Amino acid sequence: MKTVLIISERGISASNLLFKLAESIHEEDLALDIDYVSFGHIKEKLSKKAYDLLLITPQVSRHQAEMEELMAGPASGLKNLVISDDDFHFMNIPHILRQIKEA
Description:
Helix content is 47%, strand content 21%. By secondary structure, it is of the alpha/beta class. It has a four-stranded parallel beta sheet with strand order 2-1-3-4, with helices on one face. The radius of gyration is 13 Å and the shape is globular. Residues 1-103 form the PTS EIIB type-3 domain.
């Protein structure tokens, strides 16, 4: 089972994404465990559970320096995928899931 952590700026927008992804994961019977966290709580979340992939929402790009520090520290070695603005805005779940499977 692949574990995926969605990172959003405040966690609010990611909850909608999480819900839609969970629906599709259930319908397709995929071996994916999806969770989400707001940007300010990433280190705490990573200290409690191991993840295979970080799925980053477009808003987090405002925190580039902090993300680079995170990827060099607690998240080093983890794959990460930034969701495009269009995929996030239009909730293009099929494309996002395809990217997760390929990561």
